[in-house]
Design goal:
The chain contains 20 helices and no strands. The chain has 477 residues and is mainly alpha-helical. The structure holds tryptophan.
Length: 477
């Protein structure tokens, strides 16, 4: 089928999926969004959506990739034909490609910051520095669009090189060492935080909640983050599923990925907030959070320059293994659809994302305020792009859930899932109802005008909508 080879080793998909899932989403985005949204309530919504919505959709997404054995867009086309459903479902692939562009554009800029800090660590520039100095250094980085563009360019070019040469599969073996190493250093930072910071205040902040504290947009951000951190809803996992061996268990793999991913985010969060409370820093300082707190620990601990240098190299590795999973699906599509060579396809994708990334670069300096984005959406271009991805990923996930649960021929789905009937039915309940209901609930909640009517609206919408949609979009039963 379409020349896709299958990873020979069963565990390779798991490794690749962990490589995609674990990245800046865990280390940078999770702590900063949690801090901005007041802690526990955000984590509660995030964790609930991971387990009730994320895992079932993860299973659905790998399943779609594995049955079609093609890139997401072509794979969706193939499935709509073989299962005789509406071609409208192909939009899942397109929506995913759009999301990948948007995510990659800012992802690379933030990874560029990690590059900057790798340099600062290894040169020992921050040894002994205090919080004020470190914060000032970060502010100076943000004030320099030139420097940020340079790092952004380096990072995206390097990711492109790996995917363009087709050596990303070889990279996965490196992850076998890097992932545990990253986890080990996070534990070291956490121990440092326990001794020198305020782990009690951090735990209190992260694990006690008042759900009323969560703003309307906080709900959307928490759900968006659960999709973001698992790389869900845009075809990345589908693209990797295309290489997955037919014997591997979809369910066990999904649970393992979610578990590892959540563990890393939690340890990172606990370590970072121990330092935040210990040093009396602001929890809601935004995207810079990780970059001003962790260097503080490395500045002070023995061999901090070395430990910090290795840490930021590992962060870069985790970011690269994620960014290649953003490039791969779109590149594979361009290759399959337009007969391009791999390097051509990757170049087109990456140059476009690079250019869009410049919007994120300027959002932190020359365009920090007073732009059209501020006038129309009350936020910077970067924040607007993040908002879009927070909508696109759950939307893509919602459609994947509906497609897998309703539109596909269910006997085939059951065969592909290869589990017993009880779990199959449970999973199907989750993707047919629970996932779509949860995503719709959060979407509705985010619109202030409907706040009081969410539950009744949702009930009506769900009963009418899901049935009508599924029957209409499904030509043959
Ligand atoms: N999950 C990655 C992280 O947490 C980011 C990522 C990689 C991603 N590929 C994706 C997010 C696809 C959404 C979709 O850093």
């Amino acid at each position: 089928m379409s020349g896709h080879n299958v990873w020979t080793h069963k565990g390779t998909f798991l490794l690749a999926a962990v490589g995609s899932a674990v990245g800046l989403g865990n280390l940078w985005r999770f702590p900063y969004l949690t801090g901005e949204n007041g802690g526990g309530a955000f984590i509660l919504i995030y964790a609930l959506t991971i387990f009730a919505v994320g895992i079932p959709i993860f299973i659905a997404e790998t399943m779609l990739g594995r049955t079609s054995r093609q890139s997401p867009i072509m794979g969706m086309r193939h499935l709509t034909k073989t299962h005789k459903t509406s071609r409208a479902w192909e939009s899942i692939g397109w929506l995913g490609a759009a999301a990948a562009f948007l995510i990659l554009s800012f992802y690379s800029v933030i990874a560029g910051w990690a590059l900057h800090y790798t340099w600062l660590m290894l040169t020992g520039s921050l040894v002994g520095a205090d919080a004020t100095t470190i914060s000032a250094g970060f502010v100076a980085l943000l004030a320099s669009p030139g420097l940020m563009t340079l790092y952004h360019t380096l990072f995206i070019a390097f990711s492109a090189l790996i995917v363009g040469l087709g050596i990303h599969k070889g990279i996965e073996s490196g992850l076998r060492i890097m992932m545990p190493a990253l986890f080990a250093i996070l534990i070291v930072v956490l121990i440092y935080g326990v001794i020198n910071g305020d782990v009690g205040a951090a735990a209190n902040f992260l694990f006690t909640f008042n759900i009323a504290d969560l703003s309307l947009e906080g709900w959307l951000q928490a759900m968006g983050q659960s999709f973001f951190t698992l790389s869900l809803g845009m075809g990345a996992i589908m693209a990797y599923g295309a290489y997955m061996s037919s014997e591997a268990s979809l369910t066990r793999t999904a649970i393992a990925v979610a578990f590892v991913d959540t563990a890393i985010a939690m340890v990172a969060g606990l370590a970072i907030f121990s330092l935040v409370f210990g040093a009396g820093l602001e929890t809601d300082q935004g995207p810079g959070l990780m970059f001003v707190t962790l260097p503080l620990a490395f500045a002070d601990m023995p061999f901090g320059a070395l430990v910090g240098g290795v840490f930021f190299i590992l962060v870069l590795g985790a970011a690269i293994s994620s960014s290649i999973s953003l490039i791969e699906p779109v590149a594979a599509f361009l290759v399959e659809r337009f007969d391009m060579t791999r390097p051509q396809a990757v170049t087109i994708m990456v140059v476009a994302a690079w250019a869009m990334g410049l919007l994120t670069v300027v959002s932190f300096n020359v365009w920090a305020e007073g732009t059209i984005f501020h006038a129309l959406f009350e936020r910077s271009a970067f924040e607007f792009i993040e908002l879009l991805t927070n909508i696109f990923m759950p939307l893509g996930g919602l459609m994947i859930a509906l497609f897998a649960g309703w539109a596909l021929t269910q006997s085939e789905v059951m065969k592909e899932l290869g589990t017993n009937i009880t779990w199959f039915k449970t999973w199907r309940l989750l993707v047919r109802f629970v996932g779509p209901a949860a995503v719709s609930f959060v979407f509705l909640r985010t619109i202030p005008q409907v706040e009081g009517y969410v539950v009744p609206t949702l009930g009506a919408l769900l009963i009418v909508g899901v049935f009508a949609l599924s029957q209409r979009l499904r030509k043959s039963a």
